[in-house]
Write a structure and sequence with these properties.
By secondary structure, the protein is of the alpha/beta class. A nine-stranded mixed sheet has the order 17-16-15-14-8-13-12-9-18. Strands 1, 2, 3, 4, 5, 6 and 7 form a seven-stranded mixed sheet that branches. The chain has a two-stranded antiparallel sheet with strand order 10-11. The longest helix has 20 residues. It is globular and about 65 Å long.
Amino acid sequence: MPEDVGFTTMAGARAEGSAPEIGIGMLGYAFMGKAHSNAFKKLPYMMYPPLAVPRLAAICGRNAAATAEAAKRYGYEKTYSDWREMIADPAVQVFDNGGPNDAHAEPSIAAAAAGKHVFCEKPLARTAAEAKSMLDAVEKAGVKHMVAFNYRFVPAIVQARKLIESGALGRIFHFRAVYLQEWIIDPNFPKIWRLDASQAGSGALGDLGAHVIDLARFLVGEPSRIMAMTKTFVEERPLPDGSGKGKVDVDDAFISLMEFQNGAIGTIEASRFCHGRKNYNSIEINAEHGTIRFNLERMNELDVFWADDSPKETRGFHNVLVTESYHPYWENWWPHGHIIGWEHTFVHEFHHFFGAILGKWNVEPYGASFVDGYRNAVICDAILASARSGRSVDVQY
């Protein structure tokens, strides 16, 4: 790491054992800017004692007034309207890319070249080729890199992974997942950037499907073959500036069949056209010795069925409240039964990333590196290719 991005300790002290500060440069101030900033503020006193203390060095956005307001709200020291200037700031040690999908590649590549560690929102890129260029850049620079697949840091999901790793479930037969929301059903909803392929890359696939693809890889393993169908239900929408209508060139929904290298088969689906579904990310894994089931809208719970439960007359699903002190991350939170929320996954996520930066552990396998982001993009491309051709597509990294 270059000399000008070395770490300083809290209050400038060099006393042994004190937690170093890590300077954060945030690109974006909206949804993810808020979520990440909230995590930075909570992390030092909840993941205690902290491995590192985030220093909110700078925030960058195209709208100077809105960026200044975000800096005031969250406590960032400086504001920028040009990410190039922010990356050049020696106080920035970690570049946190919370911008839209079309702003992921160029700034992240530049940050890596400047010796900054890079944390990037999902999907990593609009295409696999773009993601590969980002992966190449961080590997060449030797910086730490991570993609914000925050559902890897839900305690119940980590518990599910540990059950699978232990061998308790045995051979996995099925993985099925859906990620359903309702927010663009209204045909008068405007054509925002998420509905424009040049900016987003894809629609429900990259926005929601990327999450369940990542969970499939995280929990079950690598897929080998894909078959898919996509659908755009509303093909024209009002333009945000009121100048008329624009063509929607991304998917509103997709469904995919998936075969895994270990012989399991799966289905994944995502849609933003599901009345009543607010943030319904649900997975089920059927295996030799049992089944596990998870629903993000009830994120502190994990349903588990064991095939050899006795007596058989009362055999059924166990609803496990994942809030005990021995469950993942819970020693840092509340007494059992006092649940946590979606925003806390980002606290766990950045704690993990900072630990990797400081050499405590690797980003992988529990965190998603740019390798995972690239492979996710390859699978997204395969889904779109299969939907266009009507044929199965082999997954090749």
